[in-house]
Design goal:
The protein is an alpha/beta fold. The protein contains ten helices and 15 strands.
Length: 313
């Protein structure tokens, strides 16, 4: 299998509170509380590990509360290349109601100094070569600018690496200029960055063609329950997920991304790549936490995914 590096600049301890319904302004009692070492790149890494790949994880971690991350990396066998910074890694609160509605309260993360940014830049320059792909996912912590991210992505591309980018806002805008190998925005993220509606299939195909003309090989546009559209030089495909019971939508996009990277790196046929990735995302929605816990259940979900080739736009 492949050797993969994931970069999570702004990881988080996810505190997921399960409750029947959220009543604003009242006392609410939880049914369960789950704490996970998380962050988009770390979530992606867990799914890819379950698919058999070798993972190196990097980014910034707060010194004061890194124990759960340390334990996860050891349990999963990840190579830990994170730079430790003063302070605490942020905490994100996820309020998960019965029926699948999620309310997020996300922390800001630690302040990352220029010195620590330089340490990570130099570390990645040393360790990134030799990996089959580098996945850069998630938001930027305080102190890290989109310009710094752009410079890092440009360096990774210059090293000849396949770069996957999954972020939003100014970070996505900066990243698009570096010609990543694959991007996975949702429709809202793409609309914000491009300043135009990207809702209809026709709009998505037009925008994807423009992005591919700029050197981005794979444009994967996620739409939640409405499925996912994948545009590449080899064609365009759409997948619709199966009907499932929703426990939490947290990590669904990360799981989709992991499935896409897995299929592309292993050379799977396009329709199967998208079908399996969509099923992995569906499995994520059915659980709280990250990873593939039941491969037999995954096969069942795959059989419920509808994939079709899209006509050339």
């Amino acid at each position: 299998m492949a050797k993969i590096l994931t970069l999570t600049l702004n990881p988080a301890l996810d505190l997921t509170v399960e409750l029947t319904s959220l009543r604003l302004g009242e006392v609410n009692r939880s049914e369960e509380l789950h704490v996970h070492a998380a962050g988009k790149g770390i979530n992606v890494a867990q799914v890819l590990a379950d698919l058999g790949h070798e993972l190196t994880v990097a980014g910034f971690l707060g010194n004061d509360n890194s124990d759960r991350f340390d334990a996860l990396f050891a349990e999963r066998g990840f190579i830990d290349a994170f730079v430790r910074v003063p302070g605490e890694t942020r905490r994100n609160i996820k309020l998960a109601e019965t029926g699948g509605r999620i309310t997020d309260v996300n922390g800001a993360g630690p302040q990352v100094s220029d010195e620590h940014q330089q340490v990570l830049f130099e570390r990645l320059e040393q360790i990134a070569p030799g990996h089959d792909v580098v996945i850069v996912a998630g938001s930027l912590p305080r102190g890290v600018s989109p310009q710094w991210l752009q410079a890092l992505l440009e360096r990774l591309v210059a090293l000849g690496l396949k770069v996957v980018l999954d972020t939003s806002g100014a970070a996505l805008r900066a990243g698009l200029a570096t010609q990543p190998w694959l991007i996975k925005p949702n429709t809202d993220e793409l609309t914000e960055v491009l300043g135009e509606a990207v809702v209809s299939l026709e709009d998505q195909a037009r925008v994807a063609a423009q992005l591919r003309a700029r050197g981005i090989e794979h444009v994967v546009i996620s739409q939640g329950a409405q499925g996912v559209n994948w545009f590449s030089g080899a064609g365009a495909w759409q997948a619709l997920p199966p009907t499932i019971d929703i426990a939490s939508t947290v990590g669904a996009g990360d799981s989709l991304l992991a499935g896409m990277v897995h299929g592309l790196l292993t050379g799977d046929e396009a329709a199967h790549t998208l079908r399996k990735a969509t099923a992995i995302a569906a499995m994520a929605v059915m659980q709280i936490g990250f990873g593939i816990r039941d491969h037999d259940e995954l096969e069942r979900l795959e059989s419920g995914v509808c994939v079709r080739a899209l006509e050339e736009q």
